[in-house]
Design a protein that fits this description.
This is Sec-independent protein translocase TatB. By secondary structure, this protein is mostly helical. It is built from 4 helices and no strands.
Amino acid sequence: MFGLTLEKILLIGIIAVFLLGPERLPHYAAQLARLVKQLRDLANGAKDRMRDEMGPDFDDVDWKKLDPRQYDPRRIIREALTDEDELKGQSATVSRAVPNPDGAYLQRKRAKEAATLPAPFDSEAT
């Protein structure tokens, strides 16, 4: 969790002992334990509330599929392109996109030039 290894946690504990001192350390350790318990209760309460609001559908949801860490755009595109079950029996037509004569570089260059031009002046306004 957060890239903390046992050695790092032990080092943080030793530094805490030296900074806080042995008389204040139990008080702060108890506060940390209460905070962790409150966060755990908050997460469990949110999960229970979600289960109550969604009803029986809550257990049917594949939560791992909705995990943003599982998002891989290459895989999604590959699956979309190889999904030929719906396209069987239909004639395949290949269409090619017409490339834009102005590349991205020229479009950005023109946008910068337009931004540096002075605003138009209307002598008849107000």
